[in-house]
Amino acid sequence: MKRIGVKIRSWFWNTKEAARKFYSWLAVFLGLIFLILTVDKFNFLWIILLFFLIFFLIILSEFKKILIFMFLAGIFLIIYWLMIPKIDNQALNFEAKVVDKVSFGNFVEYKSNKIFIRGQNQEIGTNLWISGVLSRPRNQSDFDLVTYLKSKGSLLVLDNPKVTVLETSKNIFTKIRNFFKTDGRYSKQLIPMIFLAETPPETNDFRKWLVNLGIYQIFVISGFHINLFKKAIFGVSKAFKIKPFIYKPIFFAFLLFQLFLFNFAVSFLRGFIFWSLIEINKLFLNKKLNKIELLSISGIVILSTNPLIFYSIGFVLTFTISFVILIINQISFSKKWHKFIVQFLFINFFSAAFSAFLNSQYNFIAPLNVALFTPFFTLLYTSLFIFIFNPIIIEWICKSFIQTVEYINDFQFLTWNIRPSLSFLLFFCIISLICFLSLEVTITLSRKKFQQSQNLKILK
User: Fold this and answer.
1) Residues 213-242: what's their mean pLDDT?
2) What is the pTM of this model?
3) Domain-by-domain residue ranges, the chain?
4) Considering only the top CATH level, what class is 90-170?
5) C-alpha dihedral over 360, 366, 369, 374, to 10 degrees?
6) Which intervals hold domain ComEC/Rec2-related protein (predicted)?
């Protein structure tokens, strides 16, 4: 019995240490999300999850993290309160500048309120004279406009708008975006998506095909592209024997430029902040924090810009997949290809859950499509970048690719129509985190037992 008690205490201690190492900052990050969810859309489920995370931190004896959470919670609640519009149902005439844009409208700022104007397609920085009636957004179709606008930090829309352009934007990012806009039938579908993180109305069919194939995430600007840029710039720099203190600041400036060009796309923003925190951790903190902690902190930083950004599907998906990859990377495998297979299976496992939730269906051939298109994307991106000044070749490449995607889409025969509930999705993620923790603890204990056996052999 005494031996069993020792084993139980050892298992509990290792579980606690692994949880503190991987999940304490993650608990703070998720706690802030559930706090804002409770305030914005009251539900007992959010309250239960919030108190569960606080109780989890208490079990881990992470009292400093609890104090940090309480401090951040106060800040986030103040930011949320400031976002609540103080004006509603008012007819106004005012001058404003475009601060954000999506495929079906513009956002302008007026008295610290971010206002959505449907049907406008002006570049960021354009000055407008606007008249109309300010009101709260309402859902008038299957598309959840209210939640979407919340994810963009907007709680007001302009009804019956009359817009006059006073001065068009002339900044360098507008000029670059205009350069990438082509008139070709196929290139105007693919080029904005790949190089500008935009999905104009012309891409609707193409986007549906990518979603059905389960490869849309490859073509959305994200940390995947940052890794692509990093390998290219670092590889060239090392080939020419350029010192890290030279090429790393250049890479940082390049990412910052891309961030403005992509209009702070949330997936790319996550990658930018995450990479910056990794470098800060190396230079100033002597790698005190692990990457899972850094990813959680980067999520908190992004939440501080808009506490409702978690309504963005891109935000949820990019952080979920990133956490899966990092947690698996923390686990030691005897062979690299074992880790690759586990990563591939788990990433597609999570993608399947989110794909079914978002699209009400799942394509069982999606993992094969991902394996096929991921390396091909690098070739496509490089080819388009090289021939960007030749519209004829660009149009031919885009036409060939889009028609190929359409052709492959017609052969997807293992599609299951299903839509899991949000509660199921949350339960799925929580159980998965527990499984990851158990796996890490099991491997840690096995490693310790192996080391102890080796020490005994040496003593003998």
Assistant:
1) 80
2) 0.85
3) 2-84, 90-170, 192-420
4) mainly beta
5) 90
6) 204-437
